[in-house]
Amino acid sequence: MKRLPMIAAVCLSGAVLAAQPAPVARFSAIVITNGSGVAVGHDRIELTATANLLSDEAPSMHAIADPGGDMIADAVLDYAEIADGDVAGLAVVQDGERWISLQTEPITPADLVAVRVHEAGDVAYAGRLIATAPLPGSFGDKVRLRIERQRGEYRFYFAAMGGAWQPLASAHQSRFSIKFDPSGPPTRIALHAFDGGERDKGDDAQ
């Protein structure tokens, strides 16, 4: 269930009521498979979203070592708390200037899954939109996410629990490109969450 925007939680005395907590993105079934077919599972992760994007210095992000070469990164995202303006998803990140993400982006009245890319010099701070698709209500606030890399090309898939994988974007699309810096830090596979919703932050208003 999605939260409605909190307009004014004020009691009769004029004091602001308890702050609305930041959303939590819950990741499970996290598996990284290298080019030799060796799969490594990871524990469930709960990320409390912050107001920092992947382009910021300290995003809300859990990083996992990238095995390099061909690989598949899988995760299940419970996005029940991710509301309008929020973002949560699976990404490949080199640094704040170079990353690509497969993520949920709710926009009332729909939940969306999208691919965004950010390269050095991009003016789109939240990343250039490459592809998007609706997440039907039948998904039940859970989506399987997959990033696949073959011979340096990235492909992106999403699926309902128990459903077939649906392609969202591939490296053959004319608008899609990602150029990591070979002399830069190693890429990491990242689970991330961003709090961009309009919430009562608990200011001392009277």
Structure report:
The chain is mainly β. It has no helices and 13 strands. Strands 1, 2, 3, 5, 10, 11 and 12 form a 7-stranded antiparallel β-sheet that branches. Strands 4-13-6-7-8-9 form a 6-stranded antiparallel β-sheet, with no helix packed on it. The radius of gyration is 18 Å and the shape is globular. It starts with 23 loop residues before the first strand and ends in a 12-residue tail after the last strand.
List the helices and strands and how they pair.
Layout: E1 24-34, E2 39-42, E3 45-48, E4 60-65, E5 71-78, E6 87-95, E7 98-104, E8 111-118, E9 128-135, E10 142-150, E11 153-159, E12 166-170, E13 188-194
Antiparallel strand pairs: 1-2, 1-3, 1-5, 4-13, 5-10, 6-7, 6-13, 7-8, 8-9, 10-11, 11-12
Key words describing this protein structure:
seven-stranded antiparallel beta sheet, mainly beta, disordered N terminus, six-stranded antiparallel beta sheet, 206 residues
Structure, briefly:
By secondary structure, the protein is mostly beta strands.
Number of strands: 13
Major pleated sheet = 7 strands, antiparallel
* Principal-axes shape call: globular
Helix content: under 10%
Sheet-strand content, in percent, reads: over 45%
Number of DSSP helices? 0
Please identify the oligomeric state.
single chain
Give the SSE string. EEEEEEEEEEEEE
Which structural class best describes the helix and strand composition?
Answer: mainly beta
Radius of gyration: 18 Å
